[in-house]
Design brief:
The structure is a homodimer of 353-residue chains.
Chain A: H1 6-24, E1 39-49, E2 52-56, E3 69-73, E4 76-83, E5 91-94, H2 114-120, E6 125-129, H3 141-147, H4 164-170, H5 191-195, H6 212-223, E7 226-231, H7 236-244, E8 249-255, E9 275-280, H8 291-306, E10 310-315, H9 334-348
Parallel strand pairs in A: 5-6, 5-7, 7-8, 8-9, 9-10
Antiparallel strand pairs in A: 1-4, 2-3, 4-6
Helix pairs in contact in A: 1-9, 6-7
């Protein structure tokens, strides 16, 4: 790699990495990929934002643990890494349904996740677990109340997991399980690792907006100018966060949002002058679940811009990137997309000096 | 700091950091602590180990998500960082009851966690979430079966959370909530952040040994010589892992284990020639919960050594370190203890060349 400048090397990664993966998976004569090299970070760590105390006397049905006491819920777990001499605004990466912050880490086939890519590109990067998910605590109080006979079974929380067969079409790996769209970029050979990422989802048992939203607001204020990057289920959260308070929000990137604000019902004033990108992958029109969502977001973008907004909606195939699933941050060309997205942020949401 | 060699600087951290915390918390004229400086890592990432497919038709009670499908449970989430030129054996950090891998990260009062400290000391460091905890998936199938009326309430899983008031004595912050032991090292001024670390615990609903155990065995084999570092509830897991298969296990460090193997029932052959450290903090004899556990572990260590073992049991006060709670990896002197532990591992479990 001698003779390549750093920016050139950075641009070269995605395709180089793809070559290695092919090699790893048995691709024939592809050249070995040089590892990206050591990463130097200025600081890293984790913390919680938000949270609410709950007192309960149905926390346990076990003799070894008392049933009564106070727990904290509604907080979000945040893990961050800051590059040395950050030159870009901080990103907050917000995962979707039935998943955790793992979404943005090492891909199922072992490639670098967006969490590290953006740090290498100069962005302080914050990965969260939604409230009541992953390392962000849920409460077992209602489950134990029913187990103790103090509440009826129909009061149990609507906690659910997505089975891989019905999830297949939602993730747009193909029209239905186990059919695959031609040109699919998701590393389906590593799907077993992907299915392990999925955890129970309590969101239907939580108030609207999800408690993640006020926590994101608090986080954005602390970061003093964050780009909120959502995915799927969490697509509406950054918009709700901005509606709550614009303070600290520099831009919104909604990746394959399950919903955009509704111009017929929602005030669009919070989005005036705010850089917004709505980004979708491929095969959207082939999906009965996603095609209407794309259309709904197109309506929002048009209305937001008519009201003084700076919103864009982009389908990856429109810019020459093809074959992407709903999990585009894990697709084989995930770093190509990240590279493009970094450029969008640098151009549209640059730090004001 | 000019003129200090790197090893000297490393040794200086713990006390320097403590000085800063005092400053942060309003301590008067303490000198500002120099930050530890940038961290260069060779590689980082996350993955799952283990896992089992489960088919169910009670995964969801919501119209938007199908009730039938296949999910994966029993896997453990693993996040790792490797130092440049690792000179020490890999550590696997295994959290305890009602907690997640967050245990080992940034402390409640914002100091460096053991996860980063050990990387800086040259140890590849792997932090896990126990099976069915945090980012390691649980299954909602039995909850939804009861909600649907297909199963009785008494079949609900025994999932529990520890309320802070009863947990207070278990963590040995004091004899009972909210009394504090004199000289307490836990940063109680930041306790609100600590309580947010606690999540629901499914372990009582899982088989024995916990599914974390075979997953740890698989991880140790991959790492080809890991030091398994447990805490509290997970204390017995590394011993069970070694009983399953010693392959890949270089040493066991049991921090405040809830139980050690029972010489009256358990085969001690798996522990022959294996470096083992059982480490307890302070105030143990003042705790009706912990005093018997200490005694039980003393019995194990004596029996293991009589059977050719290399086991040690150390109480921190015996080596001049005082005031430590059950959460000693988060106490104000946590990096002093980590420094001592790094020395123990280097001496007793050095990489064989």
């Amino acid at each position: 790699m001698a003779g390549l400048s750093v920016p050139t090397l950075r641009r070269a990664w995605p395709s180089l990495r793809a070559a290695t993966i092919l090699l790893f998976l048995g691709g024939a004569a592809a050249a070995a990929e040089p590892a990206p090299g050591p990463l130097t970070i200025a600081e890293q760590g984790s913390f919680f934002v938000g949270g609410r105390d709950v007192q309960s006397d149905t926390l346990s049905t076990l003799p070894a643990y008392a049933p009564s006491g106070t727990i904290s819920v509604d907080q979000i777990y945040v893990r961050y890494q800051n590059p040395v001499g950050p030159s870009r605004p901080p990103l907050v990466l917000i995962h979707g349904c039935c998943l955790t912050g793992k979404t943005w880490e090492t891909t199922p086939d072992g490639r670098m996740g967006w969490d590290e890519f953006f740090v290498r590109r100069g962005f302080p990067t914050y990965v969260i677990d939604q409230a009541w998910r992953g390392r962000s605590a849920a409460s077992p109080a209602q489950i134990d109340a029913v187990k103790m006979g103090r509440a009826e079974p129909n009061t149990l929380p609507a906690v659910f997991s997505a089975g891989r067969e019905p999830a297949w079409a939602i993730f747009r790996f193909g029209p239905e399980y186990p059919k695959v769209f031609p040109g699919m970029q998701f590393p389906l050979e590593a799907q077993a690792e992907f299915w392990k990422q999925m955890v129970p989802d309590w969101s239907a048992a939580l108030p609207v907006p999800n408690p993640t939203v006020p926590a994101l607001s608090e986080l954005a204020k602390r970061l003093k100018g964050a780009v909120l990057v959502s995915h799927s289920q969490s697509g509406i959260y950054p918009f709700q966060t901005a509606a709550l308070d614009r303070t600290g929000i520099r831009a919104i990137v909604a990746i394959e949002p399950a919903a955009c604000p509704d111009p017929a019902k929602d005030d669009l004033a919070p989005y005036k002058d705010l850089p917004i990108l709505v980004l979708f992958g491929d095969y959207v029109d082939a999906s009965p679940r996603w095609a209407p969502r794309l259309k709904q977001c197109r309506g929002f973008v048009a209305a937001a811009n008519a009201a003084g907004g700076r919103a864009e909606l982009i389908l990856l195939p429109e810019i020459g990137i093809h074959g992407n699933s709903h999990m585009l941050m894990q697709d084989k060309n995930s770093l190509d997309i990240a590279d493009w997205l970094a450029g969008w942020i640098e151009k549209r949401a640059a730090v004001k000096s």
